Amino acid sequence: QVQLEESGGGSVQSGGSLKLSCVVSGSIRASKWCMVWIRQAPGKEREGVASIDSDGDSSYADSVKGRFTISQDTAKNMLYLQMNDLSPEDTAMYYCAAAAFCVVTSSPPSSYGMDYWGKGTLVTISS
Fold it and tell me: Does the pLDDT of residue 1 top 90, yes or no?
């Protein structure tokens, strides 16, 4: 059983930075897998923010390109999201999710088809 737990959310002012972390417990039993950061703002649909696969390939939503960086430390079973130049539009609950038998393509990350989810960490950006 795979469990995901996010941390690192909080409240910062516009232009600030935050780094989210996700601890992955258990093993994804697949030769290929993807880890995805997904966010959902109040009243809005879920949005895939950034993804990275078992080969290290990554993709980003257009709204965060150049500001967010996804990374992973497979030895420590950790996933990260460095978020810079934050704006109020980035305010949302951020979820760590994983999908088995998945590869990252040039398309923006999808928020659908995830096999495992964390409970989320809240990010609030004030102007």
Answer: no
